[in-house]
Amino acid sequence: MLPSKKTIGIIGGGQLGKMLMEAGKPWNLKYHILDVADAPASSLAEKHLVGGLMDADKIKELAENCDVLTYEIEHIHLDALLELEAAGKTIIPSPKILEIIQDKGLQKLFFKHQNIPTTDFELAENQTEWAEKLIKLKGDKVAAKLRKGGYDGKGVELVDKKVMLEQYNQIPFSEPVVLEEFVGNAIELSVIVARNSKGEMTTFPTVEMEFDPKANLVEFLFAPASISHEIDEKAKRIAMECIFKLQGIGVFAVEMFLNSKGEIFVNEIAPRPHNSGHHTIEACYTSQYEQLNRILLDMPLGDTSLISPAAMLNLLGAENVNGPYEITGLETILAIPGVYIHLYNKATTKPKRKMGHITVLGNTLDEVKKKAATIKQVQGMKQL
Ligand code: ADP
Q: Which domains does the chain possess?
């Protein structure tokens, strides 16, 4: 029934929570959030519980007043959620899935045990274990990833195996890591999968991500991806297989590498709406955010077809700007047809912080790529 009488609780009040609530506004949905005082989603929530995401008591307090709970970030108090779920609270996705995803080591083991294609890897508990593990891996380069706590490329280092074996002091992490084989010249794909409590599944069109190699952050995203129909079908099939094998309910982003031989390797899964699905707000009949709202309320899944080709670029904090800021060039950008600007309402910036994004629609992929390149040139940031 709409409007729903259910209150949705969101752990985290960042941009993903903000866009989830924006998608719920036409249906007058009610949300409570938990996050720090000046969180981006704050003004949209009916109730904002001020507190940290690792505060078990606050999570329980949020749960008390909500019918269904979700989260927009992985780094939250897991045990509190497991306890709440065991006591009968509906949490989407289940914290049992979050438990696997919070730990990149458990995630890789899950892929391996479930025969989901992923790059070969080793787990190292500490720096002394690096050498014996590294020599088991093929290739010159290795992706080293902190098992816990990394995000947006932080906690990931692409390292040279020989250097690591010869120069012990160059090892970047002392905490437990996943060491995985590097996929050279990879095309990075993402498929967003939505699965509801009845087990029905939809995928959003496969997107291609272009990364800023220095920051390990999505720089541009294009939909549809420039891949063959066959690869597209394969990517979607693998992504759905991941979520089916997880028995996941919710919205999930499955990030994958495609190599020059046409092989696909699953990199990681995000148990929430994702940066690679921002464009779905304007480019698809149903956005990833509306799809999650539908799942939270037990409503039928929506049509995920692409209305038009799209590009998305993140507005990232400039290297030389810290604190109060102004994003420049937006007047010029707004004059370009088919442009949608999203600003995340963050009071201060720091280098590479996600401050907003711009989606561009057009008749062809070529057209949106050209517009996106122009926007990238024009957009800037200045210190206030
Ligand atoms: P995060 O969870 O912080 O986003 P990822 O595991 O997605 O970290 O890694 C960030 C980026 O590093 C990837 O998007 C990709 O560009 C690069 N990367 C990570 N693992 C590999 C790999 N095995 N082979 C090639 N590139 C990789």
A: 7-91 (3.40.50.20), 120-181 (3.30.1490.20), 187-383 (3.30.470.20)
